[in-house]
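BUG: 3D viewer hangs when loading the predicted structure for this chain

Environment: internal workstation, default settings.
Expected: structure renders.
Actual: progress bar stalls at 90%.

Input used:
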Amino acid sequence: MAAGALLTQLQTQPRTEVLAELVDIADTLADTGSVTAGLRRLAAGFVVEVRLHDQFGHIVARAGDVRGTPVLRIPLLTRDHDLGALEIVAATRLAPDAADFIGTAARLLVLQILRDRSRLEARLELRSEFVAALLGDPRDHHQQLRRDAALLGLDLSAPAVVLRVAEHGDAGTAGTDPEQVVRAVGRAAAEQLGRAVVAVHEGAVVLVANAEGAASAVRAGMQRLVALASSRLARTPLCAGLGRPCAHLEEYAEAHRQAAVALQVALEQPDPRLVACDELGIYGLLASAAPCRSLHEFVAQTLGTLMEADAHSSCDYVNTLSVFLSCDRNLERTARALYVHVNTVRYRLARAREISGLDLRDVETRFRVELAVRARDALRLAADEAG
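Structure tokens produced before the viewer hung:
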């Protein structure tokens, strides 16, 4: 129907005829299951441009191409949800009846958006697919990711964090159903943050949520969230790893790698806790590059002979070097840390020098050995996480 004919109908036909137009919109949504198709129906009927904004103010869909100015903005609200707004751009002001018609059509769009959101939230595998796409290579899926994120209540244009959660210690051996952990973390996130995306990804529960403020405040908030989720799971303490905040889509994969390394460190702590990647220092920097052939080669080149000697004896040369350097090359402190006699430390250091040719009196050698020791530890963390 042409725009002029539709406007004439709105002004002259009985209201039942106007409702027939609304039925056409409803039929379009029912047949296609597409909000975009509904927008195109509106745009074609009134020769206007229709823009759908999400709750964060971003345009997620549009239809029509009209030179004009915004003449109508309709909030898309329910009792419990802010779904965004419908904006109409037209060359001239809309007639009051036309504005009323569009307002009623907007309510139909609300129903479709709620249906889309429910469908996306109800199926765990779709959440997992979204998380996998976000934490993988999102370069070819920017618009789709942003639309799906908005349906799930996540604003990918605002700062966000990636949290990786797992059972801690011996309690994890019972193998709590991951779905139970997802529900516990999801409910805690709803209480603490309002909204977040939670799914199982690569063997652990991953949470992605918007979070603004100082790093210490974000970390404290995530720690409270994990503690609350733990309280919902009887006898199942949880620990977590937290990556650095993300400002762009391309940063989520790296943030997840950081969270994975931090979680591995948290799992090795005596008590359940959250570990942020900022706490990892050089371990985090090295592990973020692993697995890396050049890093493995560097470790083997620097420590290979000592590692081989350790494999065939109980001398523990590499660990002795590591502790010796961390104790500022103090023999007595090293002996206490290793629970051995100071003469044993002297013997091991002397033998390590003979075997490897590494002279710890040289500044460059000390740096290379310490870097190699930390690289070895970081690679182990990455290998454990990958396994």
